[in-house]
Amino acid sequence: MNTFVVLVEDHPGVLTRVSGLIRRRGFNIDSITVGHTETAGVSRMTIAVEADEFGARRIEANLYKLLEVLRVDNVTRQPSIFRELAILKVKTTPETRAQIFQLAPIYRARIIDVSTESLVIEITGNQDKVQSLIDVLEPYGILEIARTGRLAMLRGTGTASKPPEDEQDFGAAKAEEDLISHSV
Amino acid sequence: MKKTGAQILFESLVREGVTCVFGYPGGAILPAYDAMLDYPIRHILVRHEQGATHMADGYARATGQVGVAIATSGPGATNMVTGIATAMMDSVPIVCITGQVGSKAIGSDAFQETDITGITLPITKHNYLVTKPEEVARVVREAFYVARSGRPGPVLIDITKDCQQSSCEFVWPEEPKLRGYRPSHTPSSREVEQALELINSAKRPIILAGRGIQQSNAREAVLAFAEQANVPIAMTLLGLGAIPASHPLNLGMMGMHGEAWVNTAIQEADLLLAFGMRFDDRVTGNVKTYAPNAKKIHIDIDPAELNKNVRVDVGLIGDLRTTLEELQPKIAATDRSDWIAYISMLKGDSAVRDIQNLPDNGHLYAAHVINDLWRETRDRETIVVTDVGQHQMWEAQYYKHEDPRSLITSGGLGTMGFALPAAIGAKVARPDAEVWVVVGDGGFQMTMCELATIAQEGIDINIAIINNGFLGMVRQWQEFFYERRYAATPLVNPDFVKLTEAFGLKAMRVETRGDVVPAVREARRHQGTVLIDFRVEQEDSVYPMVPAGNDLHNMIRRPSAIVETGADA
Ligand SMILES: Cc1cc2nc3c(=O)[nH]c(=O)nc-3n(C[C@H](O)[C@H](O)[C@H](O)COP(=O)(O)OP(=O)(O)OC[C@H]3O[C@@H](n4cnc5c(N)ncnc54)[C@H](O)[C@@H]3O)c2cc1C
Ligand SMILES: Cc1ncc(C[n+]2csc(CCOP(=O)(O)OP(=O)(O)O)c2C)c(N)n1
Ligand SMILES: [Mg+2]
Q1: Which of B38, B45, B50, B53 is nearest to B24 (CA)?
Q2: Is the domain of A47 the same as that of A16?
Q3: Is B256 in the pocket of ligand 1 (CB under 6 A)?
Q4: Are residues A40 and A103 both part of a single domain?
Q5: In whole angstroms, how far apart are CA B473 and each of A107, B274, B487?
Q6: Residue B362 in contact with residue B334, Cβ under 8 Å?
Q7: DSSP bridge partners of B467
Q8: Range of A65's domain?
Q9: Same domain, A54 and A110
Q10: Do A55 and A62 touch, CB atoms closer than 8 A?
């Protein structure tokens, strides 16, 4: 799985352009999240896509073809923090409720709603952690899951969304370096 | 001064150097048509909007300048889709302008509303929906810049009717500012070093010359490189003309219907130098067995082309001419006469098999028509525009192109119906050139309505129908791969001579080899468009042929002259 952090112009239709492009090139998007950034007019997408090394490079090069794409970082193999938020609704009985209350803290998950026959748990973490909680709760009966998809950020002071020093030169040096160093 | 969106549109087109547009009016684009009358722009009224896009495409391919097509909303816009996709596949700079319903009506399924920016998203380099007159000038400026820069391509501008009608202050914007657009690149010095090492040590190198040479005006640079290093050159279909066919290092076309010796040489090479070509599957055959012993250097302006179809050892991302000019001084002069002599030997019995050398058996072969046409038109600047099918391949094999932009053909999309309108565009762009359409009897009927455009606009081109009574290329596949079961390929055609005459144009019919040259001469003498209906052998096939997906060296060869084919007998 490859994770791209993509900075785009905050224009109407950009999400369609980006997702359409990846689909058209024959790749399957696992998750895509979009939100504002610290810079006005710039949105940030985190895209998780299944692809091999060559595929990942092609996705990157193709993304750069879109006029609205300002910068692409493939953070897959860089030291990064990956996070996902999931909300799970689990069936409970008087007996199982206590068990689930005990499980949740192990995952640093929080119980955010309780009713007589179900409860709702919120968890944040990387994909493995979220998945492992889901697996553990499966036997109790999961009624509903809502997941945000992956967010990513580089560790340390390096950023994938450095604000433009020069409006016209947004990430240009980095983009150029990525684009021309293609031979493997 | 205040102007309407429609006026700003034409004001901007004029400032972009547009002198001619191809179009068809309708409700949603009427304000623009009304404004057009006040600007120095020639409008060519087409008979189908697909024709307008192919004309803009032919205009662009003939010159390198941006071609412009205009249509109304809804059906006008959707009729453009094939032409836009054709231009996208072959990286042709065109700008398509469509009217759109009023901005308040968007999304309401209003009369003749289609989401043309949505539809064309995957087949344009970029597209715009413009709803305010303040945006028109900037968008037109950007559209032309995007269409022609970097790897060129089609751009669509969809303009709502209210945008055309309302007014604002006209301001011609400065250079487009697009912070996310990176059309030009320069290869890294490390990769340049690696490339030089591979080039200077190669024993059996071969240049794969593509359309990028024409787009980057790199003919001189490629020739200088090839001559310095003694590297033979193989051409893609879209590369033809980029290097003179008569140049001693030019081997001819590669690929599915390329020359047998060219494909064999590629398979045996130790270095492939891909210059502005994209390793289309009609070029590589089975990629798993493609040039197995060769290192590969790819020079292309588009980073997304690298390692797409074929894994390469060194990729130089940048403009071809600039990159070659950087490499050139460091290329060692190397004697490669053994390799070149070996390739000449590979030509072997090809000449014997060539249909050109068959004794006249009373049949008219397309190869004869094309070859005679070439001999007759060599004396002038000539552009040949071909359609898609067998005749297209025979043209590529038997017409010897000397000049860039002298062959215009739809390669990537293989769009039947392309030739006639594209030729009109080419003629409008280069009125001094002689323009010949080489088209099949099938493809001609897809866009023959444009004969009316020719008549109305007084266009002077010549049309050679290679009439074999079949959808020949498909028939050939049925012959080779479907046991000659000719499902839906025989054609019952109209009388093309009478048909042409009905448009008020001149037409002739040719059935024997001896009549080819006189007919071509007469067509050339005649002022105005002439159509010649060449009745050729019905079941001839294009040889050699690498069946789709086969290894490049496993070609079906023309049965040699001695063992005559059924068709020859
Ligand atoms: C019936 C049929 C049969 C065919 N058979 C054959 C065949 O036998 N042999 C054959 O070769 N083709 C054949 N084709 C055509 C084939 O499908 C492709 O269209 C063709 O091979 C593409 O040629 P190309 O790569 O040179 O051009 P393009 O597809 O136009 O690619 C050009 C490349 O150059 C790059 N470029 C553009 N500008 C620059 C620049 N300034 N600097 C550097 N790079 C640049 C582009 O990024 C692109 O990668 C056939 C088509 C049809 C319809
Ligand atoms: C619009 C379109 N439809 C279908 C095809 C598939 N096709 C490729 S070649 C061909 C036959 C072309 O016949 P004709 O125009 O008579 O040319 P010929 O091959 O006989 O020279 C067809 C149907 C195509 N390329 N384009
Ligand atoms: Mg035919």
Answers
A1: B45
A2: yes
A3: yes
A4: no
A5: 65, 28, 13
A6: no
A7: B535
A8: 2-79+155-180
A9: no
A10: no
A133, burial (CB in 10 Å: exposed 0-12, middle 13-18, buried 19+): buried
Query: Would the pLDDT of B464 be above 50?
Result: yes
pLDDT band per the 50, 70, 90 thresholds, residue A180:
low
Average pLDDT, stretch B536-545?
Answer: 95
CB contact under 8 A, B121 and A17: yes
DSSP secondary structure string, A27-79? --EEEEEEEE-SSTTEEEEEEEE---HHHHHHHHHHHHHSTTEEEEEE-TTSS
| B444 CA: nearest ligand 2 atom | 15
Percentage of chain A exceeding pLDDT 70:
87
B69 min Cα distance to partner chain A (Å): 22
DSSP conformational letter for B66? P
What's the pLDDT band for B350 if we cut at 50, 70, 90? confident
Tens of pLDDT along A91-138?
A: 999 999 999 999 999 999 999 999 999 999 999 999 999 999 999 999
CA angle at B153 for the pair B280 and B85, rounded to the nearest 5°: 65
- Together in a domain, A59 and A16: yes
pLDDT band at residue B356 under the 50/70/90 scheme: confident
Neighbouring-strand partners of residue B42: B20
- Please say if the pLDDT value at position A166 is more than 60: no
Burial of B166 (0-12, 13-18, 19+ CB in 10 A): middle
Helices (H), B112-233: 116-119, 133-148, 161-165, 189-201, 212-215, 219-229
| Mean pLDDT over each residue of chain B, to the nearest integer | 95
- Using an 8 Å Cβ cutoff, are A148 and A33 in contact? yes
Residue the block writes with tokens 């009897």: B441
The answer to whether B97 and B124 are in contact (CB under 8 A) is no
Going by the DSSP 8-state scheme, the letter that residue B377 receives in this structure is H
Check whether residue A31 and residue A116 sit in a common domain: no
| CB contact (8 A) between residue A70 and residue B179 | yes
Q: Which of B86, B386, B416, B537 to mutate to test the pocket of ligand 2 (most atoms within 8 A of CB)?
A: B416
Cα–Cα distance for residue pair B215/B213, rounded to 1 Å: 5
Closest-CA residue of B relative to A25 is B122
Cβ distance A68 to B182 less than 8 Å, yes or no, reads no
- Mean of pLDDT values over B191-206: 97
Q: Taking the domain B2-169, which CATH number applies?
A: 3.40.50.970
